[in-house]
Design a protein that fits this description.
Number of helices: 3
Number of strands: 9
CATH topology: PH-domain like
Number of domains: 1
Order of helices and strands: HEEEEEEEHEEH
Structural class: alpha+beta
Mean pLDDT: 82
Distance between the termini: 75 Å
Helix content: 25-40%
Shape: globular
CATH architecture: Roll
CATH class: Mainly Beta
Strand content: 25-35%
Radius of gyration: 19 Å
Oligomer: single chain
Length: 144
């Protein structure tokens, strides 16, 4: 009885520590400004494999982090200069059940591979603006 109680207490403590560390990680990364964005990590089954996360725009790079992870590094690092949006669509099938109605899915291609990102309409507007924007002074780099 006492052994079972200790095991349950240890398990509860481990879950609490995980949640606290996840919150601290999210708070630390959100100081740089972040956008809620899901990414499809697996394409084995249609409409499945989505993971919640958030993205941070860092100069010419988009850093995507899993929401529930203790890793401080991003899962995806996408370079603006090498990224292309191949398709823009609304959630279909099982995706329509897990995402709110104002979410769009972007199928993006880069040299490191394809990635699908799901985000709200307003986040899509920001993402596409960031993708099309050039860093300050980029047009003058050839003259330096």
């Amino acid at each position: 009885m006492l052994k079972a109680l200790l095991v349950a207490a240890a398990l509860a403590a481990a879950v609490a520590v995980f949640l606290i560390l996840t919150y601290v990680r999210r708070s630390a990364l959100s100081r740089f400004g972040s956008v809620a964005m899901a990414a499809r990590l697996s394409r084995r089954m249609a409409g499945r494999g989505w993971a919640p996360g958030f993205a941070v725009y860092d100069r010419g790079t988009l850093l995507w982090y899993r929401m529930f992870s203790l890793a401080f590094g991003p899962r995806y690092t996408l370079s603006r200069s090498e990224l292309q949006v191949a398709e823009r669509r609304e959630p279909a099938g099982a995706e329509a059940q897990i995402f709110p109605p104002d979410v769009e899915i972007l199928h993006c291609k880069s040299p490191t591979g394809d990635v699908e990102l799901a985000m709200t309409d307003s986040a899509v507007t920001g993402f596409l603006s960031w993708l099309e924007a050039a860093p300050p002074g980029a047009a003058f780099r050839d003259f330096e």
